[in-house]
Amino acid sequence: MNSDSANQAPASVAFPKNIKSFVKRAGRTTTGQAKAFEVWGPQFLLTYAPEPLNMAKAFGLNGQETATSPVILEIGFGMGEATAHIAKVRPSDFFLCCEVHEPGVGALLKRIGEQDIHNIRILQHDAVEVIDNMLPLGSLNGVHIFFPDPWHKSRHNKRRLIQAPLIAKLSARLKPGAYIHCATDWEPYAVQILEVLSAEPLLQNTASKDQGGYAFKPDYRPLTKFENRGLKLGHGVWDVVFKRI
């Protein structure tokens, strides 16, 4: 796709005002997490600002105008277990991670410090606003959305994060050949995710029809304790991976 077509991508598609990329959850920040904010926050926490993010500066590439490594956006990392794992097995990639849940942010900062991880930056802010105001078109090499809130009740399905307007925004910010990887353990949501991504004209499914449209779990995504427990109980997990054409 040529640059003119990319510039015409739907960068500002309206997203329902009652939908956010997060749900406020109960939880108290532990002493260790609070200490991580104090010790590691200044280096790894970014400040939200309604202006394009300088990736090179954000990831500490002093003197460089552009990021030299692929940039992956993660929306909602929970307690950061999978995020830390992926950052370690993909040390040449940069991970820009959005999460508003303070204990989760503190937990990931703690993992960063304890595991000596340097390729993660965290924005403790609503990802929808980050996408709209900080991420230019064609600035991302990938997007991870793992186990978003499924909103099980039918009357709450409209609150689900993965809907056509958000996917249009994300697709416009992907470079050609970049990917979106979603995972869920709730089959009705997996069906919706597959339908939404299939309907986006800028995306193409990486999975074959023989796989039912669902991808094999990429090696970089670990099995979390929660996921392992579910699999032992017979629950399924569905990965959906599409690429920007």
Instruction: Give the number of DSSP strands.
Output: 8
Alpha-carbon Rg, integer? 17 Å
Please state how the strands of the largest beta sheet are arranged side by side. 1-4-3-2-5-6-8-7
CATH level 1 name: Alpha Beta
C-alpha end-to-end distance: 7 Å
Shape: globular
Give the oligomeric state of the chains in this entry, treating copies of one chain as homo and distinct chains as hetero: single chain
The CATH superfamily turns out to be Vaccinia Virus protein VP39
CATH architecture: 3-Layer(aba) Sandwich
Helix content: 25-40%
CATH topology assignment:
Rossmann fold
Average pLDDT over all residues: 90
Largest sheet: 8 strands, mixed
Domain module tally: 1
SSE pattern, N- to C-terminal: HHEHEHEHEHEHEHEHE
Structural class: alpha/beta
Strand content: 15-25%
Q: Helical stretch count?
A: 9
Q: Which ranges are low-confidence, i.e. pLDDT below 50, for 5 or more consecutive residues?
A: 1-11
